[in-house]
Amino acid sequence: MSNGDPIKPDGTQDKGNSIANTASGSEGVNPLPRAGDVAVNQADHPPNKTSETDKPTQPSQQDILDRIKAGELWMIVFTAVVALTTVAQFIQSGCNNASTSRQIDKIIGAAKTQACAAQKIAKASDRNAGAAESFSTSAQGIETKTGEAVTQFQHLAGATQQAADVAREALISVQTALVAFAGTMSYVKQIDDNKISSLTLSLPLPNVGGTSTVNARSQVNIKAFPITGMPTDFTFPDIGTVQMRQGEIPARATGNATIEGIRPEVFVDAEHNRSRIYVWGWITYNDVFKGTPRHLTEFCDEVSNIKITNEDASQAPQASSEFSWTLSFCLVSHNCYDRQCSDYSDKIKQ
């Protein structure tokens, strides 16, 4: 194959043209046949006379140089475009970096501003803490002084209350109602057919206090015992035949406990030493002062030294007969006041 064969666009050589070119290019020389070539009888096929314009044009060196220059130009243009693109990207990156830098600077500036504000807030907080501590100290001082003042007022109030209590106790002790047994006994005769049928006995209960009794209740009892007297274990019960009395005793006045229907023979027997007569009783009451406990007075006396005038031993005492006696404390103790009495809790419930 000759270097002068034209090359088709698909990369193959045009063999017909190559043979013609060889024949025209080598005058008087007949080329040797090659394997695969076909012998052509020129008589049967006369040669084609091809015009010069139909021959393929071979690129010249100038064309090749022009093509190379064009490629280089395009390469330069492409390189320039790439370079410009790179420069633009660099510039854009720089702008972006500059923008980012400005934003970072702004963020840093804002952070500094916030840091300054935080420092100011911290300083203000420190000042507030100092003020709060100072206020707390002042408050503690005020609280301490207030506590001391309150303690002093409490002491003063306590002393005032004690003084008031003492004054009240003094007033109560002087003005409270106080009922005692006078230690005397009077009588009233009941006359039937010119004879004494019975006696009504009165035992005075004076209120020696400065105020009246309130809700007073009392009962008295009388009984004749054998000549041996009252037993030492006597419990001073209330005799049912004697009714309980209720009433009030004004200040420095006297109330009376009465016993009705006592036969005169009871005193006749005691006069002749055949028996011994005892009277006992109690009275409970309140005073006018609120909050004070209920009071109790108990008593027991023996009726002794009995004398009856105009007495006929064979008959009941005459209407003109008179009685006299004396009262003395019982040997069995039953004279007491308030909580001194052993049966106080039971009596104040009656």
Large-scale geometry: rod-shaped
The number of distinct structural domains comes to 2
Main sheet properties: 6 strands, antiparallel
Task: Estimate the strand proportion.
Answer: 15-25%
What's the count of strands? 9
The helical percent reads: 25-40%
> Gap between N and C termini, in Å?
163 Å
| Overall pLDDT level | 78
Using only C-alpha atoms, the radius of gyration works out to 77 Å
Oligomer: single chain
- Total count of helical runs of at least 4 residues: 4
- Going by helix content, strand content and strand pairing, the class is alpha+beta
Poorly predicted residue ranges: 1-30, 35-45, 49-53
Order of helices and strands: HHEEEEEHEEEEH
Protein described:
- The protein is an alpha+beta fold and 350 residues long.
- The chain folds into 2 domains: 63-175; 186-347, no CATH class.
- It has 4 helices and 9 strands; from the N terminus they run ααβββββαββββα.
- Strands 3, 4, 6, 7, 8 and 9 form a 6-stranded antiparallel beta sheet that branches. The chain has a 3-stranded antiparallel beta sheet with strand order 1-2-5, with no helix packed on it.
- The protein is rod-shaped, with a radius of gyration of 77 Å.
- Mean pLDDT is 78; it is low at 1-30, 35-45 and 49-53.
